[in-house]
Amino acid sequence: MSMPQSKSDFIFATRTREFRAVNSLHRISRRSPFMPVTPVSKFKLGVAAVLLAGSGAAAGVMLSNQPPAAVPLPAVVAGPAAFAPAVAGATSLADMVEAVGPSVVQIQVKPRSARMQQMAYGDAPGFGGQLPGGLEERLRDLFGDALRGRGGESPFGAPGGPDAGPQDPRGGALGSGFIIDASGIVVTNNHVVGDARTVTVQLSDGREFDAEVLGRDPQTDVAVVRINGKGGAAFKAITWGDSDRMRVGDSVFAVGSPFGLGNTVTSGIVSARGREIGAGPYDDFLQVDAAINSGNSGGPLFDTRGRVVGVNTAIFSPSGGNVGIGFAIPAHMVQQVAQQIVTNGHVARGRIGVGLQGVTSEIAGAMGLETAKGALIAQVDPSGTASRSGIRQGDVVRSFAGKPVDEPRDLARLVAEAKAGSSVPVIVLRDGKSVALTLAIGGELAKPLVS
To answer: In what residue span(s) does the PDZ domain sit (predicted)?
Structure first.
């Protein structure tokens, strides 16, 4: 099976006919911080889907978990002491799983939208009716008859087919999350609680608590929930790991509540880093082969020392089921977003007012560049801070605050993480020469497609 290479090959969908999820199709719409730029080329390598694993259903699931072999571990990052295996070289994760289990929760959501509730029941064919924004027509233009699956249904439907599995008598959607503070602060995915009318958090011991959404960030698909009415109870919080130090081949394990079964553990490895799947301007996913299924969304991805290194968010699937290609938001991004939500109730991002384009080998050759790396400034907003800082159309940004910029999404994340009002040193290539500039960082702008 070929992995799609273009953003058009990925569709985000959430369907929970059996657990009455929020919706039959949820396409994450993340407002790009950049002016739209026509790409140099686009590849289409077949029908595929990235399914949001927030909730879903299938009639039956066979669980199997073989413990991974011991691997060299990265250095422990500063913070609370992480779990350490009692026996050097031990391959069992049982003690570790037992230690982190109380920090993982199931999230039950009742939606606000009657339309979303109807789509959850699967009353309409395929995705529950017409796809938003004319997406179905676009998919048909790209893939033709291949868009239709068995029985005339869309291949992007729920795992197991539209009528598989029981329905949750309580109604609503199911997802996962994890506690980041003993006071009852929980991190999950935005697509899990984005349409929530009510939220209930269930602990691994079966206790349930009402909760409220503190804030959401659709652009990174991160949300923060607070448990209410805990009666003075203290909750067990996770320990954060360093996702930047995770390497391809490192062992990981996912914990969540697939199909509403309760805490379930699956293991695997990091298959790739820095995956861009077309979800938004800040794509930087860890790709893992640990089984991630509907209901796992928002659950933690742990390293072998019991530290959270990611949030399980999506799967790639041509058939609607798990095929060993899952995606997790890196912990470093989740931490930054969650901290802003807890502190301010929202996420503030830096903006500079430019439109970007990647540097292809053809562009590099035409501009006399030695390597096809960097972020090409395709457009400059005259009212933006980049223009006032001396950035010109045609510049290629290669460094931002001392960090390398190899492609546009690198600059997108770095600018977004920068504090509004600050000044950052940048290096651009202009007319074959390196030019050092001091770039002023602006705040959120009214123009939706300018960063």
So the answer is: 341-432
Residue 191 designated active-site? yes
Nearest to 300 by CA among 96, 158, 66, 49: 96
Q: Which of 9, 168, 221, 250 is catalytic?
A: 221
pTM of the model: 0.67
Q: Are 238 and 310 contacting, i.e. CB atoms less than 8 angstroms apart?
A: no
CA dist 101 → 302, 313, 376 (Å): 11, 19, 46
CATH of the domain at 154: 2.40.10.120
d(CA 273, CA 247): 8
* Residue 445 counted as domain residue: no
The range of the structural domain enclosing residue 401 comes to 354-440
Q: Dihedral, CA atoms, 341, 345, 351, 357, nearest 10 degrees?
A: 50
Measured in Å, how far apart are the chain's first and last C-alpha atoms? Answer: 36
Residue 447 lies in a domain: no
Options 191, 242, 332, 410, the catalytic residue: 191
Half-sphere exposure of 256 (CA within 13 A, CB side): 38
Tens-binned pLDDT, residue by residue, of the chain (451 aa): 444 444 433 433 333 333 233 232 333 333 333 333 333 333 333 334 445 555 433 332 233 334 444 444 444 344 454 555 554 555 788 999 999 999 999 999 998 865 444 433 333 323 333 344 444 454 444 444 444 433 333 332 223 332 332 234 456 788 999 999 999 999 999 999 988 899 999 999 999 999 999 999 998 999 999 999 776 678 999 999 999 999 999 999 999 999 888 899 999 999 999 888 777 778 889 999 999 988 899 999 999 999 999 999 998 887 767 788 999 999 999 999 999 999 988 888 889 999 999 999 999 988 888 899 999 999 999 999 999 999 999 999 999 999 999 989 889 889 988 888 899 999 999 998 999 999 999 986 433 333 4
Task: Return the residue matching tokens 């009353």.
Answer: 123
Note if 332 is an active site residue.
Answer: no
Q: Is 297 part of the annotated catalytic residue set?
A: yes
- Which member of 297, 317, 399, 451 is catalytic? 297
Domain edge (last residue) among 321, 347, 373: 347
